[in-house]
Each structure stands twice: as structure tokens, then as C-alpha cells.
From TrEMBL:
GO terms for molecular function: FAD binding; UDP-N-acetylmuramate dehydrogenase activity. It comes from freshwater metagenome. The keyword Magnesium does not apply. Its EC number is 1.3.1.98. GO terms for cellular component: cytosol. Its main location: cytoplasm. Gene3D superfamilies: 3.30.465.10, UDP-N-acetylenolpyruvoylglucosamine reductase, C-terminal domain, Uridine Diphospho-n-acetylenolpyruvylglucosamine Reductase, domain 2. This is UDP-N-acetylmuramate dehydrogenase. It is found in: Cytoplasm. It holds the Pfam family FAD_binding_4.
Amino acid sequence: MTDLSQYTSLRVGGPARKFIEVATEAEIISAIESAGDSPILILGAGTNMLVSDDGFDGTVIRISDDHIESEVDACSGATLKIGAGQNWDSFVATSILRGFAGLETLSGIPGTVGAAPIQNIGAYGHEVCEFITRVRTYDRKNRALKTFTNAECNFSYRSSLFKAERHRYVILDVSFQLRIGELTEPITYAELASELGIAIGEKATVVKTRTAILELRARKGMLLDPTDHDSWSAGSFFTNPIISATDAAKLPAGAPQWPQSDGRVKTSAAWLMEHAGVNKGDSLSGARISTKHVLALTNSGGATASDIASLAQEAREKVKKVFGITLEAEVDLVGLNLQ
């Protein structure tokens, strides 16, 4: 059996009962149909998951379909249809080289294009849902192809229809609409504006913005480096909590607060952790809080999935005790739960 630790950025995870690699749409559908009603786990880059030490008692389908189709119009911009197995950051880099703007703030996020809509990935003031026009899937329930418009995807903060019904829809390809241009939209994220040396609300070149973001992510240990155990993570382990305005008013002065359109308030999971006594470098067996960023839980060498889950649970309990807020995992927990 295939050991899944070979295919995850955390380098943990037990064996898969069955492991299949697929590179074309026909192969993807054939593998799904061959699995019948038994459990399947779709695997791309393995960068946003924590797999149990017991592994996965079903079929793991690793998708590497990375085809790219594009239509470019000088007025309307570019429509790009990208295979689910395409590396996300490679796609972002290619789009910028071709003169397209929009995805630069999402540079450096590990994973594949097919995983991007599931989590509605986002960073530095933008989310991928802003650029998606269509998501084409295979519907396991009806055993048929199904295409979703942007509105039908039910995108929200770090979520989507595909996350809510993860075991039903398998993403085959994603279509994007990007504008042609050399400048970003106005930069609204203070940290990024500072890195670029501009004021909030000003624009920067797309190329310079991508470079700045990659540097920021590297300093936070959020760029995967095979030689640096401090980057052996699944990215941000927890999502930023969205709480009621009443609960937000109870937070200490200085706690980050971003008002939402529905009247609720988003705050920072990292700030809550740091002010609840979770420290960079804290460890439990082989699991460790990154020394660069408190939101990254890492495998410092020899960690098990249980070690990482236990460290996450400790951090979660500290935040709950101090602030009464329960952090939710951003990573996909496979065969594991945070109690």
C-alpha cells in the first residue's frame, strides 16, 4: 500500500488501501466510477490536509491533469480553463508573464487549481472567487458531468459548495476571467502596502506585487522548502474567526477587527493564539508551531499526524479558555477530529 506521507506537505499520513494516479479527464472519471460507492480521497499537491496515521481505507485518486486552454480579447481580457491538477502558483506565475492581472495577491499559495475553489483560497485582500467564472465537475451521486457558474458555487470565506459536499463533486477544471494589465487594483492590505512602499489605496505593478508577496510568505515560513522543516506545514492551520459584533466588542483593544457585510466581524486567529499563550516554537513530540508564524503547525522531524493534531488541539483550547472563541481548522482533516 502507498504511504500517504510521501504525498503531503506535512510528511505525515498512513497508507491508502488503493492509490491511483490520473492525468486525463477520462482517467479521472474512470477511477471515480471504478471506486463505486466506496470512499475516495482526491489528492492534488497534498498541501492543505492532515491525514491520519491510520491512513485512508478507500481509494486515493491523485490528479495531475494540468491542461490549459485560453481565449484572449484585447477588450474583455482573458478566459482561461485550467485542469484541476495544475500547480496553483505555476498558473499564477504564467498568467502574470502573459500580461494578465488579478491573481498576483494569491501568489505563493501551495496546492493545485482544482483545490482552489473548494477552500475559496484568499490572501492580502482578495479571494479566488473574484476571478472564477465556471467550475466543471463530476457528480458522483448522479454519475454525470456538471458545470457550476460562479453564483452556483456558493462561495464564502474559505468555503464553497464543493467543501460542503466534498464527497459528491470532483473538480475537473476551473475557468477564470482575468483582465489584461500591468497594475494591480488598489492595495487595501496594510502589510502588503508597507512591503511595497506605497500608501493604502495606491496601486503597484503586478510583477512587483507578486515579488513582495512571495517575500512576505517566505519570511512567514509559508513557502514550502524541502530543506527547511519550519516550512513543512499545511499553511494556515486555522481560519480567521468571524464572530458577532457583540463578541467582537468584548475583545481587548488592539485585536484586529474587519467588519463584514452581514454585520459580523472577522478577527485574526494568529493574534488570538499569540495572546492566549501560544508561542512560536512551541512543540509536542515532533510537531511544532513554526518559529516564523504561529498559524503554521509544522513537522520538525519525525512527527506523527496525532502529534500535529494534539498540538492543534492544545492551541485551540488555549484560545477558547482566554477568549471564548473556538478556532476552526482550515486544513482538511482526513480520519482525524479536533475535540
